[in-house]
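Student:
Attend to each token:
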Amino acid sequence: MTTETPVPQLRAAIKSYPTTKALLEGKVSSPLVSFDFIDVEPIHRAFAPMARDQIYDVCEMAVFTYLQAHTYGKPIILLPVVLAARHQHGCIVFNKEFHATMTPADLVGKKVGVRAYTQTTGAWVRNILMREHGLKLDSVDWIITEGAHLAEYSEPSFVRRAPAGAKLIDMLMNGEVDAAILGNDLPDDPRIAPVIPNAAQAGPAWHAATGLIPINHMLVVKTKLANSRPDLAREVYNLLLRSKEAAGPLKGPDMRPMGIEAIRPSLELAIRLAEEQSIIPRSFSLDELFGPWRAISSAR
């Protein structure tokens, strides 16, 4: 009598996107591995437990969270898979009930709320404010409602914590902050307007001019899994590639590129921004960042 070897099951936290839908719905599968998909909503609630305690085998993770995790030597490995990206120019908004108009120049001396200083959307927006509008970060009173996903991190001196229990959207609607950086929780409210002029056109124009992708989330695996079963880590990558292909052609940030060279310029910019904004203490090369992945992707 032959006993079949059970297929390994990986505990995974991945949000449903056009590029992951086929995998999550089982339309893309493999005889080598199965998944226990954990529904985490919002998905950023999965980042801290993965970065700190590696509670998943496979997990979506904000790119700036991973850059910190790499800095602090956490046993997780980055795969060259972009799961989420978007144009960021429209993500800093103000409430017209309290300000008739507001531009980036008006932010000097103002209170600007963001969920966490290390939040990836916030980092991309600050890059826009610095590079395209000449804003100095320490000229703004940054208010956060949460700390970083990594316990080792301390925010810069010009960042302060809101009172316990404060919610960013409520602070914006009540006028407790002059502007706020919001992502998926951006409200559909006629009182809310973008701080950056022509925000809807500015993001696509930046992408068209630079070819860069403002990466939000990527994919990580536990180092222990990758080292013990590199074949499974490779199969996870292959399944994501197949799931992406099943989504058909996508444009702009929604192209969700895969492969080191496809994301190299965008990720190198993210590393530079993380150092400039004091999210990480030092820069590092993409070769250093993807060294572990190169090792497992070529292992036999």
Q: What stands out?
A: The domain at 89-210 is CATH 3.40.190.10 (D-Maltodextrin-Binding Protein; domain 2). The radius of gyration is 20 Å. The chain has eleven helices and eleven strands. Residues 230 and 295 are 9 Å apart (CA to CA).
